[in-house]
Amino acid sequence: MCCGTKALAAVGAVVLIAVAAYLLYLILEIHVLPGIPLTTYGANTKSRGAGSWALVTGATDGIGRSFAVQLAKNGFNVVLVSRTKAKLEELSREIQSKYVGTKTAIYAMDFSVASASEYEGLGRLISHLDVAVLVNNVGTSHEMPETFLDMAESEIERITNMNVIVTQRVTKLVAPKLVARKRGLILNLGSFTGQWGTPMMATYAGSKAFLIGWTYALGEELRRANVDVQLLNTFFVVSSMSKIRRASLMIPLPDDYVKATLARIGRSTGALGRPFTMTPWPAHAWLDWATSHLTPAGLMLSRSYDYNLNTRKRAIRKAEQLAKKQ
Ligand SMILES: NC(=O)c1ccc[n+]([C@@H]2O[C@H](COP(=O)([O-])OP(=O)(O)OC[C@H]3O[C@@H](n4cnc5c(N)ncnc54)[C@H](OP(=O)(O)O)[C@@H]3O)[C@@H](O)[C@H]2O)c1
Questions:
Q1: Could you give the domains of the chain?
Q2: Can you name the residues that pair with 186 across neighbouring β-strands?
Q3: In this structure, are residues 22 and 285 in contact, taking their beta carbons and an 8 Å threshold?
Q4: Distance CA 51, CA 118 (A)
């Protein structure tokens, strides 16, 4: 072997070892390495009620409900904020009877029309509580996929307000408490639509893309105050919003999704290389990694367009069938 060939073989070996090491680390990130223990943020299962508080928005259904129940299970007291008072009361009773000793506080507010005084009311409710965790979960999407030019102005405002403005207002209200106690956690419910850009869901995708940049900035600012901020890059989960009822490997139930999240706080999982971001569900994590590193972005856009066009056609057919029956 001449010197040139030897050098080339050595470079090849180094590259192979680096790729193998990277892939091994990715597997460990997604499947093995544990997250920050929730006791770090004041969870206490030994003496329920003595722990710190977690505040969840949109707490009465889907992913938010699972966060509320599982944060209580893990030893937090919980502030439940959502639209429907009766559902909040029922959830509060369920948590108190399942995890005896856990304290709950409920606050009913419709974020789509909430006034300054309602935010102030929420501020008063939490003013004496040791809130350490905020889950910015509440969000809304398009009723069905549609092109941006077909969207009603009211729909644009509804989605942008809920996903962009509400998230910031709640964070302005709650995050100073986390900073003051010098340890805290903020989880922002992101979406793959924000990462890819998703035709026929332009405003929802844009609002979730906002959360990506906003989380980067907030994460760096609050890191200095010992508050961990993470965007949860979420693909489909069974829920009323996704309108998906059956779970599969790629579409977890909210409980399974949240369990995977709480076990991986602080990790990147499939979002390796993107700060303050994780893709907690393992199958989503691989999809995230593959689409970020191996698939041309333009291809994802055209596939999403076709997918959403079909979803729209199906939704219209279903609505027409329903109308005929009535
Ligand atoms: N599911 C998915 O596939 C998926 C994928 C990516 C990202 N996400 C994100 O995950 C988050 C939760 O989604 P989800 O699928 O769990 O939703 P969901 O099942 O529809 O639950 C939404 C929750 O928010 C509450 N809510 C809705 N509008 C409200 C309003 N105007 N004011 C106050 N509370 C309101 C609902 O209260 P009521 O009980 O009174 O209705 C309910 O508790 C959203 O930010 C969403 O964008 C979801």
A1: 38-325 (3.40.50.720)
A2: 134, 229
A3: no
A4: 27
From ligand 1's centre to the CA of 82, what distance in Å?
9
Is the pLDDT score of 189 beyond 80? yes
Which residue has the least CA distance to atom 24 on ligand 1?
58
- In this model, does residue 150 exceed pLDDT 90? yes
In DSSP notation, 245-273 reads -S--SSS--HHHHHHHHHTSTT--BTTTT
3-state secondary structure of 100: coil
Beta-carbon contacts of residue 105 (< 8 Å; ≥ 6 apart): 53, 77, 78, 79, 80, 125, 126, 129
Testing ligand 1's pocket by substitution, the residue of 57, 61, 70, 193 carrying the most ligand atoms inside 8 A of its CB is 61
Pocket residues for ligand 1 (CB within 6 Å)?
Answer: 58-64, 82-84, 87, 110-112, 137-141, 189, 191, 234, 236-237, 239-242
Give the pLDDT band (50/70/90) at residue 49: very high
Closest residue by CA, ligand 1 atom 47: 139
Substitution site in 135, 138, 157, 284 for ligand 1 pocket (most atoms within 8 Å of beta carbon): 138
Q: Give me the residue label for tokens 């700060």.
A: 275
Q: CB of 158 within 8 A of CB of 212?
A: no
Give residue for tokens 């279903």. Answer: 318
Q: Is the pLDDT of residue 135 over 70?
A: yes
pLDDT in tens, 74-98: 999 999 999 999 999 999 999 999 9
Count of CB atoms within 10 A of residue 277's CB?
A: 24
Q: What residues are annotated to the active site?
A: 204
